[in-house]
Amino acid sequence: MERSNYFVEIKRPDENLIEILYRPKGLCEKDLSDPSPEEIIIRRERQTFRRMPKTGTILFGVKTYLTTLDQLPMQELENLAKEMRSWPEYVGEYKGKDVWGAKVLEFYKSRVGQMDEKIEV
Questions:
Q1: How far apart are CA 121 and CA 111, in angstroms?
Q2: What pTM was computed for the model?
Q3: HEC string of the chain?
């Protein structure tokens, strides 16, 4: 079985991507307002569950990807926007959507607009 998870964090100007992996605070820095796409970090996790054939033990694996919003591939950006819209209010609150949500959707809409312009040419 496989599943994917998104977490969104805000990068402080003095941080690099590796430091975000080991940040002792929560998932989102609430003291940073109006982040730019370069400061919004999308943490994607690919999680797998496998049952070992001989022992029946379940193996849980996680692969983590960190990408700034402005470097996120369009398909992943579409997936994130779709997932964000499906979250109940309490999930959005837990994930810090009030800090970065509007900026992510604004960036998504601008990217979709750029793609529409390329198609019309």
A1: 16
A2: 0.72
A3: CEEEEEEEEECCCCCCHHHHHCCCCCCCCCCCCCCCCCCEEEEEEEEEEEECCCCCCEEEEEEEEEEEHHHCCHHHHHHHHHHHHHCCHHHHHHHCHHHHHHHHHHHHHHHHHHHHHHHHC
Residues 6 or more apart whose CB falls under 8 angstroms from that of 76 comprise 42, 44, 67
Closest of 71, 79, 65 to residue 36, by C-alpha: 71
Q: What is the pLDDT of residues 37-67, one digit of tens each?
A: 988 989 888 899 999 999 999 999 999 888 8
Would you say 72 and 39 are in contact if contact means Cβ atoms under 8 Å apart?
no
Amino acid at 50: R
Q: Give yes or no for residue 94 having a pLDDT over 50.
A: yes
- Residue-range domain boundaries for the chain: 2-120
